[in-house]
Design a protein that fits this description.
alpha/beta; about 250 residues; OB fold (Dihydrolipoamide Acetyltransferase, E2P); DNA binding; CheY-like_superfamily; phosphoprotein; LytTR family two component transcriptional regulator; Rossmann fold; Sig_transdc_resp-reg_receiver
């Protein structure tokens, strides 16, 4: 049976949301739900398991679309396509931080909508398969080791060999001492499997293993063979963690 792609639509303009839903369904997609804010987001992602999120940037309320996009990246490993009536550089720069799979400027035609959604889904699937990226890592073994599925193999990873994690859109790059493994998963899920006493967030896109840090200052962290940025707001947390842990 052919899989019907499921789409979560987050748009606070009711008439536009209904029109977009109709266009998608006429083109063979299923719209699992229409949300107008972040309320119910977690439940919708967990229960409906959409394949893609169409997300308006300029939402009214406590969280705008960019903030919700960041929430989605923490909660689910799925593609995001932004909808917006603005093409301002500031907005585009903020959107780029989330690494969306697509971007549609309002008003848009049916052809633009369907083409962008189709390309985003196909590109996402191709990227995942092409690199042998797992949808969810298999964690098996003791607290110090687990296995990650990569290109059809379950590969052993010693937690103490992980230098840092880098998030990029729906992907997490696990940087070991001698190689990098990329998985399609949320950093929140992966972090829940790592010791929080020495794996800490040091930047909006980086989590570091402080046991393997060779040196750091207010801007950078150095490992044996790599350097990553240190966010200003995370410096004090890093100092506290280094003081507490028994290295």
């Amino acid at each position: 049976m052919r899989h019907i792609p499921k789409i979560l639509l987050i748009e606070d303009n009711f008439s536009l949301a209904e029109n977009t839903k109709e266009l998608l369904e006429l083109s063979g997609y299923e719209v699992t739900e229409i949300l107008s804010s972040s309320e119910g987001l977690k439940e919708s992602l967990e229960f409906n398991k959409p394949d893609l999120v169409l997300l308006d940037i300029r939402l009214q309320g406590k969280h705008d679309g960019i903030a919700i996009g960041k929430m989605i990246r923490e909660l689910a490993a799925i593609p995001i396509v932004f909808l917006t009536s603005s093409s301002e550089k500031k907005i585009l720069d903020e959107v780029k931080e989330i690494v969306p799979e697509g971007y549609i400027v309002k008003p848009y035609s049916k052809e633009t909508l369907i083409t962008t959604v189709t390309i985003a889904l196909n590109s996402y699937e191709h990227h995942t398969r092409g690199k042998g990226i797992t949808i969810e890592p298999d964690i098996i073994g003791s607290a110090n080791e687990f296995f990650i599925r990569e290109k059809g193999w379950l590969k052993r990873v010693n937690i103490d060999h992980i230098q840092y994690l880098k998030t990029e859109g729906s992907y997490v790059h696990i940087h070991l001492k001698d190689k990098t493994i990329t998985i399609r998963n949320t950093v929140k899920d992966l972090m829940s499997r790592l010791p929080e006493s020495y794996f800490i967030r040091v930047h909006k896109s980086f989590i570091a293993n402080i046991k393997l840090i060779n040196a750091f200052n207010a801007k950078e962290i150095r490992f044996e063979n790599d350097t990553i940025p240190l966010g200003r707001m995370y410096y004090s947390d890093l100092m506290d963690s280094v003081n507490k842990i028994n290295l």
